[in-house]
Design a protein that fits this description.
With 181 residues, this protein is mainly α. It contains eight helices and no strands. α2 runs antiparallel to α7 and α5 packs parallel to α7.
Length: 181
C-alpha cells in the first residue's frame, strides 16, 4: 500500500504529471517517427521483413544518441535548479552516448569495403546491443522529463525544511540530556 503522502503529492501534481506524460509522448512519437513511418512504407511496398532492417546499419544507436543528448542539457543547463540524481542520470547519458557512438562507428567501419579492417559484428549482437542502448536512452529521457516537470522548488524546499526540523529536534533532545543514537 502506498503511503498517504504519495497520494497527496499525486493529487496535487496531477496536472504536472499529465504535462510530463504529454511532453514525453510527443518526444518519443516524434523521435521514433522514422521507425514507424519507415516500417509502414516498407510494408506498403512489400519489402518489410523484420526490424533488422532498422538496426543492422546502426540506426538504433543513432536514435539512442538522439534521445540521450538533450537529456544532458536538461540536467546541466541550469545547475542551480535542484534536480534529484543529476549525476547518475548524467553519467548514464554519457555512457549511452559513448556506447552508441562506438557501436555506430564500428558498424559504419565494418560496412566500408577496402578499409583494411577485419571487423566482424554479428547481426544478433548488433540488434541486442543497440536495442538495449535505445531502451536505456528512452528510459533516462522519460525519467528526466518526469522529474523535470513534476518536481518543483517547493517540493525540494519542503524536504530541506523537514530535514532541518528533524536536525533541530535531535539537537534539542541531545541538549536535554537525551541520546541521539
Amino acid at each position: 500500500m502506498m503511503p498517504d503522502s504519495f497520494w497527496i503529492w499525486f493529487r496535487r501534481n496531477k496536472h504536472r504529471l499529465k504535462l510530463a506524460a504529454a511532453s514525453f509522448a510527443a518526444n518519443a512519437i516524434g523521435g521514433l517517427l522514422p521507425l514507424y513511418l519507415g516500417a509502414l512504407v516498407l510494408i506498403g511496398f512489400g519489402r518489410f521483413s523484420n526490424f533488422a532492417d532498422f538496426y543492422l546499419n546502426g540506426e538504433f544507436a543513432l536514435y539512442a544518441a538522439s534521445f540521450a543528448a538533450p537529456v544532458l542539457y536538461q540536467l546541466f543547463g541550469d545547475v542551480k535548479k535542484p534536480f534529484p540524481h543529476r549525476m547518475w542520470l548524467g553519467l548514464s547519458c554519457v555512457v549511452v552516448l559513448v556506447l552508441s557512438t562506438g557501436m555506430f562507428s564500428a558498424i559504419f567501419l565494418a560496412s566500408k569495403a577496402g578499409t583494411g579492417q577485419t571487423l566482424q559484428i554479428g547481426s544478433v549482437a548488433i540488434g541486442w546491443i543497440t536495442t538495449i542502448l535505445l531502451v536505456a536512452a528512452i528510459a533516462v529521457s522519460a525519467l528526466t522529463t518526469f522529474y523535470d516537470l513534476t518536481i518543483t522548488v517547493d517540493d525540494i524546499d519542503l524536504q530541506q525544511s523537514e530535514r532541518q526540523n528533524v536536525d533541530d529536534l535531535a539537537a534539542k533532545f541531545s541538549a536535554l540530556g537525551g541520546s541521539s543514537e
